[in-house]
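In the design runs reported in the main text, the only information available to the sequence generator was the tokenized backbone. The following block is the verbatim input for one such run; it is reproduced so that readers can re-run the procedure and compare outputs position by position.
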């Protein structure tokens, strides 16, 4: 990390990591879920519930097989994850991507352009290469939610809550159906919507 120009602060256990986060307020936290003294999920929950630290993005480090930990981490507010073992290059790329999103949030942009895809939020209009794409109100809300949190993994439960207004687990298939229809309508731009099996969806960023 230091070789890439980052100043790195270290904490060897959960409680001290939480205290350093409150005191130093770093630009980003790399959080291992397997921590002594305090579980990583509890650290994440504490960071996101404190007004001093809740805006700090979190990149989780998880074991490859611990799918449920990732789901819980996203529900608690983590921004992305890297599975062990990982390459230093992959970690640096993920960190840089998260920091770019923090510096240039899409949430308040009325017009968003991504390659050939143009989204006009105020006019409720989507075009691809100047060709209009007719989306339902729900499909439009789903696309905007995915794009406004671009590069971040979103669970089905999160999308249900933000787009449909409820979180009942039994309706997760509703999200899958609408994602499939949205991809079909977006044609080649539908490839931007990635499926992370067992977790949710992500609108990917350009190739690094």
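Verbatim output:
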């Amino acid at each position: 990390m230091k070789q890439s120009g980052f100043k790195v602060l270290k904490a060897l256990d959960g409680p001290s990591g939480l205290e350093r986060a409150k005191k130093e307020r770093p630009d980003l936290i790399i959080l291992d879920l397997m921590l002594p003294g305090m579980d990583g999920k509890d650290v994440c929950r504490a960071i996101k519930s404190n007004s001093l630290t809740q805006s700090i993005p979190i990149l989780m480090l998880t074991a490859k097989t611990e799918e449920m930990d990732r789901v819980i981490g996203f529900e608690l507010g983590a921004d992305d994850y890297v599975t062990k073992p990982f390459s230093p290059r992959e970690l640096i790329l993920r960190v840089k991507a998260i920091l770019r999103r923090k510096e240039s949030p899409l949430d308040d942009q009325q017009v968003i352009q991504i390659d050939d895809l143009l989204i006009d939020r105020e006019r409720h209009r989507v075009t691809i290469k100047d060709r209009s794409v007719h989306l339902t109100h729900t499909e439009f809300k789903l696309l905007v939610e995915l794009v406004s949190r671009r590069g971040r993994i979103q669970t089905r439960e999160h999308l249900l809550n933000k787009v449909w207004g409820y979180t009942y687990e039994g309706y997760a298939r509703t999200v899958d159906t609408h994602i499939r229809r949205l991809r079909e309508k977006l044609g080649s731009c539908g490839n931007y919507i990635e499926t992370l099996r067992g977790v949710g969806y992500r609108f990917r960023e350009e190739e690094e």
